[in-house]
Amino acid sequence: MSQLMSIRIVLVGTTHPGNIGAVARAMKNMGLSDLVLVNPMRFPHDDAFARASGAADILDSAMVVSSLKDALTDCVYVAGASARTRTINWPSMGPRDCAERMLLEARAGKVAAVFGPEKSGLQNDDLDLCHTLLTIPTNPDFSSLNLAMAVQVLTYELRVASTLDGGPGFESESPPATGEEMENFYTHLERVLIDVDFLDPDNPRHLMRRIRRLFIRARPDQSEANILRGFLAAVDRTRGSD
């Protein structure tokens, strides 16, 4: 079960503190303990500890951060949970396949599952930081799934998958690039694309979102990310000599 310790649950903009407690309880039931809260509306709060019902230790150790980027800096793989349809298609998985993939990725480093606010869910800017979209199939006539229920579905699948033989892990000369390393690359890339007049600085998001999808599919490791940054640095030097 040690791989479960490499799984992080991230809650973004949770509005009701009781839901945070219920998520902590769901996590502890299935052997997870790493909880990160991004801009919760109210936390710490008595309602959270009341709903945790024996999982107060997870709330006590929960980290509170101001941005999703901060929550994912050390992660090598991220799944974003959402039921909303998107203009740009993200790679998507159901909870069973997603759990198996997360445990496989956890052999190389920290992985995370991200859940958005109860009413609005994750925004596209949040999904830009994710490698896949986690979708939980529900009754189409009543698809309202409580936040803690959604976390419980995934953590149950993670628990089951952790008991299975997942086969060989990834073999690479270099570990996967972390979220922080890829964000630094995207920032550098966007600046260079603007400098060479390839990207409109007043409307960069749509193209950059598609570029992110491309590199998410490619999954650069740390050495490859360094090569890409070196290429961009060479472009910077060439432009500077003009």
Structural class: alpha/beta
What CATH architecture of the largest domain would you give?
3-Layer(aba) Sandwich
Overall average pLDDT:
90
Major beta sheet, specifics? 7 strands, parallel
CATH superfamily of the largest domain: SPOUT methyltransferase, trefoil knot domain
Q: Looking across the biggest beta sheet, what order are the strands in?
A: 3-2-1-6-4-7-5
Q: End-to-end span in angstroms?
A: 57 Å
Helix-residue proportion:
40-55%
Total discrete domains = 2
What share of the residues does DSSP label as strand, in percent? Answer: 5-15%
In one word, what is the shape? globular
Write down how many β-strands occur, each being a DSSP E stretch of 2 or more residues: 7
The H/E string reads: EHEHHEHEEHEHEHHHH
Structural features, described:
The structure is a single chain. The longest helix has 19 residues, at 222-240. α1 packs parallel to α2, α1 packs parallel to α7 and α5 (95-105) packs across α7. This protein has helices at 17-30, 46-52, 56-61, 68-71, 95-105, 124-127, 147-162, 179-195, 205-218, 222-240; strands spanning 7-12, 34-38, 63-65, 75-81, 92-93, 110-115, 132-134. The radius of gyration is 19 Å and the shape is globular. Helices cover 46% and strands 13% of the residues. The protein is an alpha/beta fold and 242 residues long. A seven-stranded parallel beta sheet has the order 3-2-1-6-4-7-5. The mean pLDDT is 90. It contains ten helices and seven strands. The protein folds into two domains: 2-162, Alpha/beta knot (3-Layer(aba) Sandwich); 179-240, Orthogonal Bundle (Helicase, Ruva Protein, domain 3). β1, α1 and β2 (34-38) form a beta-alpha-beta unit.
